[in-house]
């Protein structure tokens, strides 16, 4: 009899509900594989309590409490602190936004407190000539390094060498 294997009128098989994928993953809010939660979100950063405390200090004084290469990394910190974190280079850190000149202006204007070091020098698939790598190199050469647990930040309000 046609339609016998349909649930909720979605045309799916018995293990597909509300347009989800087989096994209940997807459309009904089920979990997709991989870590999950802050720190497991698409290989985003794990944010320690100490790092969270560092970023939250004086957070209202800045447009962005920090800047990080790539949206996954930035999202982990933003979700953990509830404060805005700039994603340099878009989703995976390879887009040319912001440019080094734009980033320098944001820093000069006091809009960003910290730069979060990704340790990869340009994001996933980033090249040494990309905007993300240029920004990383400029920050590392000009600002004070702050290590919190296993995470490295650069205080964009304090000149100094690492």
Description of the molecule:
- The chain is α/β, with parallel strands linked by helices.
- It has helices spanning 49-56, 71-81, 100-108, 131-142, and strands at residues 64-69, 85-88, 112-116, 143-148, 151-159.
- A 5-stranded mixed sheet has the order 2-1-3-5-4, sandwiched between helices.
- Helix 2 links the parallel strand 1 and strand 2.
- The model is unreliable at 4-41 and 120-127 (pLDDT under 50).
Secondary structure elements and their pairing?
Blueprint lengths: L48 H8 L7 E6 L1 H11 L3 E4 L11 H9 L3 E5 L14 H12 E6 L2 E9 L3
Parallel strand pairs: 1-2, 1-3
Antiparallel strand pairs: 3-5, 4-5
List keywords for this structure.
single chain; 162 residues; alpha/beta; 5-stranded mixed beta sheet
Shape: globular
User: How far do the termini sit from each other?
Assistant: 72 Å
Estimated share of beta-strand residues? 15-25%
* Largest sheet, strands/sense/barrel: 5 strands, mixed
| Pattern of helices and strands | HEHEHEHEE
Average pLDDT across residues?
Answer: 77
Number of helices: 4
What is the structural class? Answer: alpha/beta
Number of strands: 5
Low-confidence segments, given as residue ranges, are: 4-41, 120-127
**Oligomeric assembly:** single chain
Strand order of the largest sheet: 2-1-3-5-4
Radius of gyration using CA atoms only: 20 Å
Percent helix, as a range, is: 10-25%
């Amino acid at each position: 009899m046609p339609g016998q294997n349909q649930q909720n009128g979605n045309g799916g098989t018995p293990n597909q509900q509300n347009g989800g994928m087989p096994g209940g993953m997807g459309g009904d809010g089920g979990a997709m594989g991989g870590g999950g939660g802050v720190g497991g979100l698409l290989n985003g950063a794990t944010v320690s309590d100490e790092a969270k405390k560092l970023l939250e200090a004086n957070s209202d004084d800045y447009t962005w409490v920090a800047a990080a290469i790539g949206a996954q990394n930035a999202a982990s910190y933003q979700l953990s602190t509830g404060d805005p974190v700039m994603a340099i280079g878009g989703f995976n850190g390879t887009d040319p936004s912001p440019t080094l000149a734009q980033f320098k202006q944001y820093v000069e204007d006091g809009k960003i407190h910290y730069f979060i070091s990704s340790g990869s020098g340009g994001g996933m698939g980033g090249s040494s000539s990309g905007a993300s790598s240029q920004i990383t190199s400029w920050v590392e050469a000009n600002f004070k390094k702050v290590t919190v647990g296993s995470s490295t930040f650069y205080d964009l309000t304090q000149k100094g060498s690492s």
